[in-house]
Amino acid sequence: IPKGKKVAPAPAVVKKQEAKKVVSPLFEKRPKNFDLTRFIKWPRYIRLRRQRAILYKQLKAPPAINQFTQAFGRQTLAHKYRPETKQEKKQRLLARAEKKAAGKGDVPTKRPPVLRAGVNTVTTLVENKTAQLVVIAHHVGPSELVVFLPALSRKMGVPYCIIKGKTRLGRLVHRKTCATVACTQVNSEDKGALAKLVEAIRTNYNNRYNEIHCHWGGNVLGPKSVARIAELEKAKAKELATKPG
């Protein structure tokens, strides 16, 4: 290098040329999928439950049946008025018999206010206008058992609500399942809580009866139908785009 001449500085960014990896088209990479969920043979009751859920979504449901999809939130007031179990009744009668044997006199106990369960019992209470509140399960089968109760309750001026789970109602009355329960009377200390609950239920169900009965349910397309419709729409759009003028 001649004296007095400077070497040009190196460029700020030197791009390294990466060698492209040549992939043979003869050998395709097929990563293993260890998720075997779709190969599992599910029990029959699970398959039926899933098929029933798909049918409920895809079949068109009239408003009288669709109203059972609008469920009310959980309230714990009813837990205080559960009927006594067989063991509790046995203990109560035993204590009463011991008092009678001790010569303290037999004083019959007044029947406490409890929930009344069963479709026939609740229907009679609603017809007689003695029920203060009616609670209906949302997935009773067949639906003909309870489909008339909302209309009957509204006609008789009895507040009604729909909650999710006939097993939850069954727990209240010491059964496996229960379609409907009714509350006829409560203790004086719970009358305020019941009045607030009834007011909220009337606003959500009784007063909105005509509005609820305008809406049909179901009629939801499955993934195959949605994909087919999207494919047809795409073909139509492509045809319109290529059409001259």
Beginning-to-end CA distance, first to last residue: 72 Å
Task: List the total number of helices.
Answer: 9
Number of strands: 6
Q: SSE order in H/E notation?
A: HEHHEHEHEHEHHEH
Kindly state the percentage of residues in helix.
Answer: 40-55%
Question: DSSP strand (E) fraction?
Answer: 5-15%
Low-confidence stretches: none
Provide tags for this entry.
two-stranded antiparallel sheet, ribosomal protein, Ribosomal_eL8/eL30/eS12/Gad45, RNA binding, four-stranded mixed sheet, eL8/uL1-like, elongated, alpha+beta, single chain, 8% strand, 245 residues
Please write out the topology.
Layout: H1 44-58, E1 60-61, H2 63-66, H3 86-101, E2 115-117, H4 119-127, E3 133-137, H5 149-156, E4 160-163, H6 166-172, E5 180-183, H7 191-206, H8 209-212, E6 217-218, H9 223-242
Parallel strand pairs: 3-4
Antiparallel strand pairs: 1-6, 2-5, 3-5
Structure description:
- It is a single chain.
- The protein has 245 residues and is of the alpha+beta class.
- Helix content is 40%, strand content 8%.
- It contains nine helices and six strands, in the order αβααβαβαβαβααβα.
- The strands form two sheets. Strands 2-5-3-4 form a four-stranded mixed beta sheet, sandwiched between helices.
- α5 (149-156) links the parallel β3 and β4 (160-163).
- The longest helix is centred in the C-terminal third of the chain and has 20 residues, at 223-242.
- The radius of gyration is 34 Å and the shape is elongated.
- Component of the large ribosomal subunit. Interacts with CRY1. Interacts with DICER1, AGO2, TARBP2, MOV10 and EIF6; they form a large RNA-induced silencing complex (RISC).
- GO terms for molecular function: RNA binding.
- Belongs to the eukaryotic ribosomal protein eL8 family.
